[in-house]
């Protein structure tokens, strides 16, 4: 008490500071409590919104009518898309079994003539239809499906040729359903009938080419103007054609050219052409590329997608959500 009486101004200042600190502490505590309550309320509202969004619709007639309208609109859009895809893919012309074999041999001959000096082909090249160079399809329906498949393979090989592929080392294809069903039928087995909307035909090709041509090929595979059939590049494996580095004896520098000739009178030339500026002679080549010029060995696995007649009514095969 004596100190306060002796130091009244300083005591007053300290009292104001203490009261202000207590007031600020109270305001801070109140603000923090309000923040926590607001945060808990916000999280609670968010949980309620998420629960409402994931909850089933109330079983009322207006909700049922609104849901049916949305499902019908969705079905119309999906059916329209399926019909459009059927129109965009090239049609398949009916053909007989003997005609298919003749068509296959003709296309093999045409491709070999077109790729004589441009792209190397395997010795037994037949678009993956080697069995049908000597045997006929089991029926005219199978021949028609194989004919459409052959047209797609032909377009793929022509695309390889357009992209300047060095060589087509291997070309394989998956069997069609009509071929596997025919084999099972000959063994007394029955295949289940399914209402499919598309069929994926897998094609495997091994190519030799450089990097720029590979980029061009991958881009043109997705271009309708270059590849009229629906394709999906499922796997791409790239290796250098040569796995080991070159030997020192294989690396040869180009011959250096040494200018010949004696004294031609530089003083007279300078007097005749005083204003002519000549660039300095190029430096002799002392380095060559050792890596980066080798070709690539590429394996492509492509899904050739064919949309079936079931795509016209694809929405009818999909159950409505919530049922």
Rg value: 39 Å
Which outline best applies?
flat
Quickly give the structural class. alpha+beta
Distance between the termini: 85 Å
**Average of the residue pLDDT scores:** 81
Strand content: 5-15%
| SS summary, helix count | 9
> What name is given to the CATH topology of the domain at 88-187 and 194-242 and 295-317?
Alpha-Beta Plaits
Question: Order of strands across the widest beta sheet?
Answer: 1-2-4-3
Say how many strands there are.
4
Helix content: 40-55%
- CATH architect. name of the domain at 88-187 and 194-242 and 295-317: 2-Layer Sandwich
CATH class of the domain at 88-187 and 194-242 and 295-317: Alpha Beta
Mind summarizing the main beta sheet?
A: 4 strands, antiparallel
- The CATH superfamily label of the domain at 88-187 and 194-242 and 295-317 reads Ribosomal protein S6/Translation elongation factor EF1B
Q: Could you state the order of secondary-structure elements as H and E?
A: HHHHHEHEHEHEH
Give the low-pLDDT segments: 261-270
Protein described:
With 323 residues, the protein is of the alpha+beta class. The protein has a domain at 88-187 and 194-242 and 295-317: Ribosomal protein S6/Translation elongation factor EF1B (Alpha-Beta Plaits), CATH 3.30.70.60. Helix content is 47%, strand content 13%. It contains nine helices and four strands. Helix 4 packs parallel to helix 5. The chain starts with a helix and ends in a 6-residue tail after the last helix.
């Amino acid at each position: 008490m004596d100190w306060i009486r002796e130091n009244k101004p300083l005591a007053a200042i300290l009292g104001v500071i203490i009261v202000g600190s207590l007031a600020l502490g109270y305001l801070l505590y109140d603000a923090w409590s309000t923040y926590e309550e607001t945060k808990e309320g916000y999280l609670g509202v968010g949980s309620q919104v998420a629960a409402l969004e994931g909850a089933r619709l109330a079983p009322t007639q207006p909700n049922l009518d609104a849901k049916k309208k949305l499902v019908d609109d969705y079905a119309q859009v999906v059916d329209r898309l399926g019909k459009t895809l059927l129109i965009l893919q090239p049609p398949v012309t009916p053909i007989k079994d003997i005609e298919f074999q003749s068509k296959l041999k003709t296309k093999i001959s045409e491709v070999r003539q077109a790729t004589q000096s441009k792209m190397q082909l395997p010795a037994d090249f037949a678009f993956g239809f080697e069995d049908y160079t000597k045997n006929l399809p089991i029926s005219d329906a199978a021949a028609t499906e194989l004919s459409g498949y052959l047209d797609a393979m032909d377009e793929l090989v022509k695309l390889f040729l357009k992209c300047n592929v060095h060589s087509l080392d291997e070309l394989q294809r998956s069997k069609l359903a009509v071929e596997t069903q025919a084999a099972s039928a000959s063994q007394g087995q029955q295949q289940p009938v399914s209402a499919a909307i598309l069929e994926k035909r897998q094609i495997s090709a091994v190519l030799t080419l450089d990097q720029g041509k590979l980029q061009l090929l991958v881009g043109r595979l997705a271009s309708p103007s270059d590849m009229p059939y629906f394709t999906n590049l499922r796997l791409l494996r790239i290796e250098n054609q040569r796995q080991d580095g070159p030997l020192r004896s294989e690396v040869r520098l180009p011959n250096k050219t040494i200018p010949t000739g004696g004294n031609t009178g530089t003083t007279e030339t300078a007097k005749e052409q005083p204003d002519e500026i000549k660039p300095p002679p190029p430096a002799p080549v002392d380095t060559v590329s050792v890596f980066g010029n080798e070709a690539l060995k590429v394996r492509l696995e492509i899904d050739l997608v064919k949309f079936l007649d079931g795509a016209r009514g694809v929405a009818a095969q999909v159950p409505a959500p919530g049922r």
